[in-house]
Backbone:
């Protein structure tokens, strides 16, 4: 196993020792912020009393609402003169969430990101194209500095402008890209429209993330673009990208436990779920200086994967994000996550890349409709063929969801597309009240 950083090969005992030492330190640092000082005082927790990992449950859970309520400086644990950067959410509804960084925070983040990229097979010799938004969004600069830390020639392409993306890929023989899954599928479609085979594009590695996606979506990306696509996980509150990443075996994402403590809790009770069960990922930063976070509720749903990875790294692996606790749809009393629908649709050979979930209300009853793009060669005038596809998709969805959605087949490229994160759910229920 070739490694980028010695922390990759820590034993379980060494990981526990690092976490214990850093947890005690980060709680003391967090207590310097107005928010955590008040919170710990209210709970009667003396930061000096946190001496083992068993003390973690004595610490408060932190939510996005806490970050918003503390805007702009309530979570800050360092002096302003030590800060070198901030990232923030868009803040289009209410106060944004802001995350601050010291110079050391940025170096640590770049090292974590470079560690991830190296683990996925990238090397100094690679030409890397970053197809992500720059600015306040963490995915752009976070990935960018990681690639440069690894030593790659890095192209800060940014998001959108598909024609330019394709030209850059071809002109500079780009070997690795960072790209949102839905945009990867869209880009492959645009290349095909130009009469080219998307598999002839030069990248051999795609780093995908920023939006939940199914294994079927990943395999379709790999097949259409002729590369290996590695799943990743990050969120702005934990720096951004670089929290967890797949190795070459693509069997779960190694979460860097020397920098984070991860818990998986029941979203309703906040109690730990059984080993291997899906729950809400709760994270504590261990190396953050400017703005440490204790037991942050990500709202992302995942599970710890049992056993050890064949790569030899012993950092625990999390499964792909199956959705968000606050993205759950309740239809006819049944809990449904959009990712369940994508998993079924993209496994159907006749289905194209795009789909839309429409929520409607008839009288007092909520209904779910799934609009599905069908590949051109299957979208023909023979209603028996289309009817058979429609019935098959409806049956597969019923078996997965335990409710029967209405399935509407539409022509390929007829549903709205976006060069950013895909918006899959359209809720029309409120407009009909």
Residues:
């Amino acid at each position: 196993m070739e490694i980028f950083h010695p922390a990759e090969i820590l034993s379980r005992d060494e990981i526990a020792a690092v976490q214990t030492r850093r947890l005690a330190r980060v709680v003391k640092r967090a207590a310097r912020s107005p928010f955590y000082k008040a919170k710990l005082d209210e709970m009667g927790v003396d930061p000096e009393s946190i001496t083992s990992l068993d003390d973690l449950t004595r610490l408060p859970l932190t939510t996005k609402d806490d970050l918003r309520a503390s805007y702009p400086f309530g979570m800050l644990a360092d002096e302003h003169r030590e800060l070198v950067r901030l990232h923030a959410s868009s803040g289009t509804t209410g106060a944004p969430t802001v995350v601050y960084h010291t110079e050391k925070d940025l170096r640590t983040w770049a090292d974590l990101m470079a560690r991830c990229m190296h683990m996925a097979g990238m090397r100094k010799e690679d030409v890397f194209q970053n197809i992500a938004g720059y600015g306040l969004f963490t995915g752009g600069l976070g990935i960018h500095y990681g690639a440069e830390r690894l030593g790659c020639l890095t192209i800060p392409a940014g998001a959108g402008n598909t024609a330019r993306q394709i030209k850059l890929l071809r002109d500079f023989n780009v070997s690795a890209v960072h790209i949102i899954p839905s945009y990867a599928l869209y880009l492959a479609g645009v290349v095909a429209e130009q009469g080219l085979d998307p598999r002839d594009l030069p990248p051999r590695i795609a780093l995908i993330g920023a939006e939940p996606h199914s294994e079927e979506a990943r395999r379709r990306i790999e097949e259409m673009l002729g590369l290996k696509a590695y799943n990743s996980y990050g969120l702005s509150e934990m720096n951004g990208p670089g929290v967890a990443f797949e190795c070459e075996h693509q069997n779960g994402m190694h979460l860097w436990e020397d920098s984070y403590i991860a818990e998986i809790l029941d979203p309703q009770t906040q109690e730990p779920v059984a080993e291997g069960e899906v729950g809400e990922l709760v994270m504590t930063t261990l190396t953050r200086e400017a703005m440490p976070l204790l037991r942050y509720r990500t709202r992302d749903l995942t599970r710890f994967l049992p056993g050890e990875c064949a790569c030899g790294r012993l950092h625990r692996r999390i499964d792909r994000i199956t959705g968000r606790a606050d993205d759950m749809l309740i239809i006819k009393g049944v809990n449904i996550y959009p990712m369940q629908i994508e998993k079924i649709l993209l496994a159907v050979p006749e289905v194209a890349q795009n789909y839309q979930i429409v929520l409607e209300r008839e009288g007092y009853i909520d209904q779910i409709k799934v609009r599905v793009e069908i590949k051109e060669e299957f979208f023909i005038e023979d209603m028996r063929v289309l009817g058979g596809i429609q019935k098959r998709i409806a049956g597969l969805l019923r078996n997965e969801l335990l409710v029967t959605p209405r399935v509407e087949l539409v022509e390929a490229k007829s549903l709205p597309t976006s060069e950013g994160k895909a918006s899959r759910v359209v809720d029309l229920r409120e407009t009909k009240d």
Remarks:
- The chain has two domains: 1-326, 328-432.
- The mean pLDDT is 91.
- The longest strand covers residues 351-362.
- The chain is about 30% helix and 25% strand.
